[in-house]
Amino acid sequence: MADLSIQQQFWNRWNAATREIELGDVSFRQAEVIHGWLQASGRRDLDILEVGCGAGWFCGQLLPYGRVTATDLADEVLARARRRLPDVTFVSGDFMTLPFEPESYDVIVTLEVLAHVADQRGFVSRLASLLKPGGRLMMATQNAFVLRRFNRVPPPEPGQLRRWTDKRELRELLSREFEIRELFSVTPRANRGFMRLVHSRKLNAPIRALFGNRVDRLKEAVGLGWTLMVLAEKKAVATQHRREAGASWAA
To answer: What is the pLDDT of residues 81-109, one digit of tens each?
Structure first.
């Protein structure tokens, strides 16, 4: 396993070469889902923590919903994000050891981070410990089923940890600390085999012209999306608290 300094070097390089330059359809679709969940809360006073924020591309979009704190190991990237987004509180370092106050956040957002941490169960427990009672976890993570079967992905580079999860593994990881409210895939993608043709933008253009994104949504519903999206609620919520929170959160 790569030590933290090598991981930090990798993520500084990777973000500078990718997320600080442009975003793709995978990121846009993840953002769309998260916005939907946040809008359903009807709240604009949330305490939000984004874990693994990278270049901070999503942090500014979270500000309309409340106060935003964001953290990442990539310290050089966060230094630039601070200058672009002064209203976001950026904290660089190892998420597992940073001194965040327990039960301080209404929402934790974490996009494509789980697959890149050494201790996934410890990571999930840490997320739960920082959420208030009844707090919500909004997670995106790579869909192992789709990536392994239908895509060629370059091997990890030095400092890049990688352990994808499928739906079953993700449910098992989260079930100790969270009640899963939604779990589904988004953004069908493939670059090898028959599925490459099934998802081809060129071949699907006439279908999209007729039916819009309904066919893509069907593919997502049957689990063919590149990303798994999870909305989960921290467990051990008293019945009274759940009734009180019902006015703020959609069931």
So the answer is: 999 999 999 999 999 999 999 999 999 99
CATH number at residue 100: 3.40.50.150
pTM for the full predicted model: 0.90
What is the Cα gyration radius of the chain? 18
Domain assignment present for 241: yes
**Structural domains in the chain (count):** 1
Q: Where in the sequence is the domain holding 92, given as residue range(s)?
A: 4-145+156-187+226-245
Please, are residues 103 and 130 in contact by the beta-carbon 8 Å criterion? Answer: yes
175 belongs to a structural domain: yes
User: pLDDT, tens digit, for every residue of 176-221?
Assistant: 999 999 999 999 988 887 666 666 666 566 656 665 677 788 888 8
Contact status, residue 229 vs residue 184, Cβ threshold 8 Å: yes
Please measure the distance between the N-terminal and C-terminal CA atoms of the chain and give it in whole angstroms. Answer: 40
Helix (H, G, I), strand (E, B) or coil at 218: helix
**Residue 193 maps to a domain:** no
Contact 34, 109 (CB under 8 A): yes
> How crowded is residue 16: how many other Cβ atoms within 10 Å of its Cβ?
15
